[in-house]
């Protein structure tokens, strides 16, 4: 992997990780366009840029890391349990699902669900606008919705946001809860991948790793801030249509 490729992939990871458009799906497609095979060293690179995205969440919500938010983090931990159990039990089967075709179909399905969800919630005012007010029941339901993100192309952010919208969270609160829920999910996934591919770092050039990490961190940090501002004035409809168009384009190309 050269410097330009590391910059592009770092940017794609940072841009898509916290938006409801599937970072994994975009990384698969962009890597294919760049002619990068899914080698062990390239998988190790993806682990590094995902860690950068995790740090971007911590930097964005550093004030939440204090004892007075123990209740909030307990709810986040509860939301993590369903996907943690399913991911651990069916890890190999989930990995076997990865293909551009499956990603494309799930892009379309997710886009349609977003459009239907927006139509459904438009008739109901949100019950929760502050993530500290999320109940344990709501947290568990959001966690169950996140299990669908194990299907490539579904989007972790997308599935959690839809689950949150359907149980009464506002668009802003849905996005913020999704950001925080990304921490245990991505930490667990990256940790497993790091254990699996730690030996591959020895054969990887560190300059692309460092550059990719920095680009992913800066991009993810900016996206988190801008996404919250976007949701103050707009809905998720644009993301729904984007998913459908992108999914159809993938089916045509592949």
Structure description:
This protein has 11 helices and no strands. With 254 residues, it is mainly α. The chain has one domain. Helix 1 (3-16) crosses helix 3, helix 4 (70-89) crosses helix 9 and helix 9 runs antiparallel to helix 10 (206-231). The two termini are 24 Å apart. The mean pLDDT is 89.
Short description:
The protein has 254 residues and is mainly α. It is 73% helix and 0% strand.
SSE layout and pairings?
Layout: H1 3-16, H2 23-33, H3 40-60, H4 70-89, H5 91-95, H6 100-121, H7 136-146, H8 156-166, H9 171-197, H10 206-231, H11 237-253
Helix pairs in contact: 1-2, 1-3, 1-10, 3-9, 3-10, 4-7, 4-9, 6-8, 6-11, 7-8, 8-9, 9-10
Helix content: over 70%
Task: Quickly give the structural class.
Answer: mainly alpha
Q: What is the average per-residue confidence, as pLDDT, rounded to a whole number? A: 89
- Number of structurally distinct domains: 1
């Amino acid at each position: 992997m050269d410097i330009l490729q590391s910059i592009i992939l770092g940017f794609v990871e940072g841009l898509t990780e916290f938006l409801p458009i599937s970072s994994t799906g975009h990384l698969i497609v962009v890597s294919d366009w760049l002619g990068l095979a899914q080698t062990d060293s390239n998988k190790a690179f993806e682990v590094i840029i995902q860690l950068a995205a995790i740090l971007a969440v911590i930097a964005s919500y550093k004030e939440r890391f204090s004892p007075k938010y123990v209740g909030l983090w307990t709810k986040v931990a509860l939301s993590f349990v369903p996907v943690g159990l399913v991911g651990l039990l069916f890890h190999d089967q989930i990995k076997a699902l990865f293909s551009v075709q499956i990603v494309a179909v799930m892009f379309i399905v997710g886009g349609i669900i977003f459009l239907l969800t927006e139509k459904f919630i438009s008739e109901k005012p949100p019950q929760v606008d502050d993530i500290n007010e999320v109940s344990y029941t709501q947290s568990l339901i959001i966690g169950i919705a996140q299990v669908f993100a194990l299907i490539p192309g579904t989007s972790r952010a997308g599935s959690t946001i839809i689950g949150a919208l359907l149980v009464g969270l506002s668009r802003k609160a849905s996005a913020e809860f999704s950001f925080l829920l990304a921490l245990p999910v991505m930490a667990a996934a990256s940790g497993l991948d790091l254990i699996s591919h730690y030996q591959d770092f020895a054969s990887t050039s560190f300059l692309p790793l460092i550059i990719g990490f920095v680009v992913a961190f800066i991009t993810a940090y900016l996206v988190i801030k801008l996404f919250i501002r976007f949701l103050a004035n707009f809905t998720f409809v644009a993301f729904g249509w984007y998913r459908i168009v992108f999914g159809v384009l993938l089916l045509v190309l592949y």
